[in-house]
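Predict the structure of Polyribonucleotide nucleotidyltransferase.
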Amino acid sequence: MRVPFRLIGGVLVATLLTQITACGSIFYPDRRGQIDGKVDPAIAVLDAVGLLFYIIPGLVAFAVDFATGAIYFEPGHTAQVAPEKLKEAIGADGKVDNHKLQAILQSELGRNLPLDDPRLIQYKGSTQQLAMFGLKPAV
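Done. Here is the predicted structure for Polyribonucleotide nucleotidyltransferase.
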């Protein structure tokens, strides 16, 4: 009777220890020590996954990442690209060339995003957004 309780206890302790560790501190140890900045949404989502399983470890993960500063983007590094650089990927007809866009994102962000994935959902821009790029909306 004692063995199942030890087994269950061991599994519970191992699970809690894996959930308590903060994702930002594990994936980006070089970000520690920051005071503020823009929150990295990927790390915030990974920390929030801990909330789905156990409330306390999820809160601890958020607390550790915010306290160490590992949840913030590095200073000077963001996941945004200037609109002027993205203009090269937009054709004269207002359509986006995915291959050019993928090359721009690769060079600017250093990440290879699969823009040719059939599950990718694309939204049409508004006329104001097209006017900002100096393009005429196509009918």
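The chain has a mean pLDDT of 75.
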